[in-house]
Each structure stands twice: as structure tokens, then as C-alpha cells.
Amino acid sequence: MHLSPDQVIYWQLGLFKLNATIAFTWALMLVLSLGAWLVTRKLSHGMARSRWQSGLEIVITAIEGQLVDVGLDEPRRYIGFLGTLLLFVAAASLCTIIPGYEPPTGSLSTTTALALCVLVAVPLFGIAGQGVRGYLASYIEPTWLMLPFNLISELSRTLALAVRLFGNMMSGAMIVAILLTITPFIFPVLMTLLGLLTGLVQAYIFFILAAVYIAAATRVRKRADEDAGPTAA
């Protein structure tokens, strides 16, 4: 039994290793990219639409609705990044039913990379929404004494995102692996189904938290303009 897909080595040359985390991450990205290309290569604008396009539109509409509920007024601007995060983490969880598959989200390196993507995306979207000066000013509100605390908050929530996703994904896989060794077959099957549900929930939580962080970074100026409006009048 191994704790992480990092421990499964398929090929090694000196310091260079091809482990399960790298292999299944790239395989999953390839499958998602190929699937996206197959679904979108013949999109229809009329009433007659394929089942794949209808399914895609349902997924996109649901994601946009969630982003609006979080507070992002222009969901189309963020759906490329946040939707990809959601689909990747969800697909990584669903594929656990495939024999021999090692979920890349069971590795702390993968979850850290995903959290770092959010860390980079938050200021980028914040700067795009309110400019460099406006975004940086949010770090010293309501006083410049808050600067170190806001910086610590940025780093700590990134760590929390990575550890939360890693812990939940790894714990589910470990529980199933342990039960397979000490209980009959049927009970681990039920636990596997529960693990799939847990993985989807974790994908949704990761997606929502990332959206909340981006929403907070892009709504600072809007709130400041609303507060200044009556004064100016």
C-alpha cells in the first residue's frame, strides 16, 4: 500500500522520474482536451443539437449560475479558469473506478500546484478588474497596518486549499484500500461509491472557494465606487 501516487515510479533516469502523479495528470489533461475538441468541433446554433452539445450547455449554464451566485457579475470572464479547475478535479475523482488508476489529486504536489494556480489567478483577475493601483490598495484597507496580515492571508489560504483537497482525496483512497484488505468485497464497493461522491463534493468546494477569492479581489473597487457615490452627489 502506498500513501501517494508519487511513490509509484514507472520510469527513472538519474534524478528524472516518471511517477503515477505525472503520468495520470497528463493522461487526464489529454483526455479532457480531446473530449473538449470532439464536443465543440461541430457546434450548432440552430434548434437541432447533438446530445453532447446539449450536455455541454447544461454544464456551462450550471457553472455560470454558480459563479453569479458567488458574486461574479461577468461569469464568462472566469469560466475558462474556474470551469477547468472544477472539471479536472471532478474527473480525477470519477476515474478512480478504473482499475490501476491513481488519482493525481492524491498527491500533495498536484493539489499545491492547483492552489498556486488560484494564488496567481486571484491578483491577475483583480488587476484586470480594478487596475494595478486599485488592487494593491486593497491590501492596505482600512489602514496600512493591515498589509502584513493581508499578505499572510493570501499565503495561508493557498496552503489551506492545497492541504484540504489533498487530505480529503487521499483519505478516501486510503479508507477503501484498508477495507479491501480486512472486509468482504461488497462493503468496499459501497465505500468506493461514497468516495466518488466525496471527490465530487471536494471538486465543488475547491471551485467555489477559488471563485470566492476571485470575487473578493474583483469587487473591491465596485464597493468603493458605491460608497463614494452619495458623497460625491
Quick description:
The protein is mainly alpha-helical.
What does this structure look like?
With 233 residues, the chain is mainly alpha-helical. Helices cover 74% and strands 4% of the residues. It has seven helices and two strands. A two-stranded antiparallel sheet has the order 1-2. The model has no long low-confidence stretch (mean pLDDT 79).
Fraction in beta strands: under 5%
Overall pLDDT score: 79
Chain oligomer state:
single chain
Order of SSEs: EEHHHHHHH
**In DSSP terms, counting alpha (H) and pi (I) runs of 4 or more, how many helices?**
7
Bin the helical content: over 70%
* Overall spatial form: globular
Flag low-confidence runs. none
| Helix vs. strand class | mainly alpha
Radius of gyration, CA atoms, in whole angstroms: 21 Å
* Count of distinct structural domains: 1
Write the layout of secondary structure elements.
Layout: E1 9-13, E2 16-19, H1 20-40, H2 51-70, H3 75-94, H4 108-137, H5 147-182, H6 186-218, H7 220-232
Antiparallel strand pairs: 1-2
Identify the notable features of this structure and list them briefly.
single chain, 233 residues, mainly alpha, two-stranded antiparallel sheet, 7 helices, 2 strands
